[in-house]
Design goal:
mainly alpha, Serine Threonine Protein Phosphatase 5, Tetratricopeptide repeat, 13 helices, elongated
Length: about 230
């Protein structure tokens, strides 16, 4: 079974970069962290959010500069307040985990939501987890399912695994008209990612469905996968 873990966002974005930042990125990939810091820090001090994010990561890891968590948080907050999604997800995860800074689910929700609304799939997934568990927000399976769905539509398969609850919502008509065909679709998709509970629920409702309905549910699942190939 896949773990319900929150993901710290310290990944290099696959984007085209130029000038000093590209030089710093080349140095970073070569593990020349001192040069990376030298290239990025001037732009970070001038307020560039992407440079602030990466310099913050260097301070956090103690790479090319003395480890300094307070400086890392300062830079990530500056970048996050300028709308940098990676910094927003990172802050959300740090507040959720509460290992390096005091745990605060409300702060985690705030930063995850900002990044989620900017289309960040990890933030959407993590926000779904908060609503699923009622941490920092009121427990709400419909809301959690909507955020998992947004992440899954971007190809994030961990989110598809979690959509067993979306199937349950349709099979029981919770806030939507009861629809076993749609429930079968989502149970099938979730089961395809290894969710054993989804497989059990799919088999249970299939006994209440006609062969034509089951075939329709299977096709809907297949069509959804074709339209949303897994990328992450």
């Amino acid at each position: 079974m896949k773990k319900k873990s929150l993901v710290l966002f310290f990944l290099l974005p696959w984007i085209s970069l130029f000038g000093d930042f590209q030089t710093g990125l080349t140095a970073y990939k070569a593990k020349d962290f001192v040069k990376a810091f030298q290239e990025w820090n001037p732009s970070a001090e001038k307020g560039d959010p992407l440079s602030q994010y990466f310099v913050g990561s260097l301070y956090f890891e103690g790479q090319g500069v003395e480890k300094n968590l307070e400086k890392a948080l300062e830079l990530w907050k500056k970048a996050a307040n300028q709308g940098h999604a990676g910094s927003q997800v990172t802050l959300g995860s740090l507040y959720f985990e509460g290992k390096l800074i005091p745990q605060n689910f409300q702060e985690a929700e705030k930063w995850y939501r900002k990044a989620a609304e900017n289309g960040n799939y990890l933030a959407q997934f993590n926000l779904g987890l908060l609503y699923e568990d009622g941490k920092g927000v009121q427990l709400d399976y419909m809301e959690s399912s909507q955020w998992f769905l947004k992440a899954a539509e971007q190809g994030y398969r961990n989110a598809l695994y979690k959509l067993v609850n979306y199937g349950f919502i349709f099979s029981n008509g919770i806030g939507v008209p009861a629809d076993n065909v749609k429930a079968y679709q989502w149970y099938t998709l979730s089961a395809g990612e290894g969710n054993e509970k989804a497989a059990e629920l799919r088999d249970f409702i299939s006994r209440q469905m006609t062969p034509a309905e089951i075939a329709q549910g299977k096709k809907m699942a297949e069509d959804w996968l074709k339209a949303h190939p897994g990328k992450k």
